[in-house]
Amino acid sequence: MNFLDRILFYVYPGACAFCGALMPHSKTGVYICPECMEKVRFCARGSCCPICGAPLDAEPAEDGRRAALCPECFSLRRGGVRRSFDRIIAACAYDENSSGGIIKYKRGLSLGSASTFAGIIAANIRGRLPDIKFDFVAAVPPRRARIREVGFDQCDLLARKTAKALGVPYVKGALKRAREGKKQTELSGDERRANLAGAFETRLGADKIKGKTILVIDDVKTTGSTMEECARALKDKGAAYVCGAAIAAAGREAN
Ligand SMILES: [Zn+2]
Ligand SMILES: [Zn+2]
User: Fold this and answer.
1) How many A from CA of 174 to the centre of ligand 1?
2) How many CB atoms within 10 Å of residue 34?
3) Which ligand has the nearest atom to the CA of 100?
4) Whole-number Å distance between alpha carbons of 255 and 184
5) 26 CA distance to ligand 2 middle (Å)
6) Cα 121 from Cα 94, distance rounded (Å)
7) 181: CA distance to ligand 1 center in Å?
8) pLDDT tens-digit profile of 60-75?
9) pLDDT bracket for residue 149 (50, 70, 90)
10) Which ligand is nearest to the CA of 227?
11) How far is residue 102 from each of residues 4, 60, 106, 136, 171, measured CA to CA in Å?
């Protein structure tokens, strides 16, 4: 550590977004300690489903003939089912190594982690979609009851910081809840889908959406139902391409 870094470490240390360990000041605003860098399953190419972002246990075929899809995307594709989102990208797997820090952030107990989470989402978007130029970034809107409980909107902050990191405009409030559904975490996969059908709409006029390439930010992607419904609201108004992105994606077995 040089002199300036040492001063910054004492005056303005950062905390690892996953485990909270204090770390030297980072100019990038991304704080992941060496231990979490090892333990957290970051989604590299081939280690997660290229359509929905679900972490995959199987290694991709070495001959590279086809990218491995998760079982759900594989069977939907085989059945000719088209989903509204074009793809979902997650920065890491949602498991015991990543969930602690993410839950803390969602509860509003570590707002500083927003920069780290936005930084790793932005890096994944840039790395995996280098040719896509997004027109704007939107956030998955929170349930109103959640804002009352926690007092802040974790996806709004995450989306704002991700947009800044990518140099793309952020349109606050682009998506809103058409109605208040039940809390998703209390429901099974099928119940989640039913609970969310038509749950979102967009405040923007069709002229602001038609033909646009849009990035929608969520905190954790579980079944993909939330992203599907957000994307549907945007596609209904003519969006050309909707990519969802989240800090972490749950494995299919977690559904
Ligand atoms: Zn850590
Ligand atoms: Zn998938």
Assistant:
1) 33
2) 10
3) 1
4) 11
5) 34
6) 14
7) 34
8) 555 554 558 898 999 9
9) confident
10) 2
11) 30, 28, 6, 24, 24
Specify the residue for token string 């936005």: 118
Domains of the chain are: 1-39 (no CATH), 41-254 (3.40.50.2020)
- What is the crossing angle of helices 189-196 and 225-236, to 10°? 30
Residues 6 or more apart from 110 whose CB is under 8 A from it? Answer: 15, 17, 20, 101, 104
Ligand 1 centroid from CA 21, angstroms: 6
Bridge partners of residue 245, in order along the sequence? 89, 217
Cα 168-173-175 angle, rounded to 5 deg: 95
Separation between Cα atoms, residue 159 and residue 152, nearest integer Å = 13
Give residue 118 CA to ligand 2 midpoint distance, Å. 22
Mean of per-residue pLDDT scores for the chain: 88
Q: What is the CA radius of gyration of the chain?
A: 18
Measured between its terminal Cα atoms, the distance across the chain in Å is 44
The whole model's pTM is what?
Answer: 0.88
Distance of CA 205 to the CA centre of its chain: 25
Q: What's the 44 CA to ligand 2 centre distance in angstroms?
A: 15
Question: What would the pLDDT profile of 9-36 be if each residue is shown by its tens digit?
Answer: 666 678 999 999 999 888 889 999 999 9
> Can you tell me the distance from the alpha carbon of 222 to that of 216, in angstroms, rounded to the nearest whole number?
15
What distance in angstroms lies between residue 70's CA and the mean position of ligand 2's atoms? 4
Length of the chain: 255
Mean pLDDT of 206-220: 97
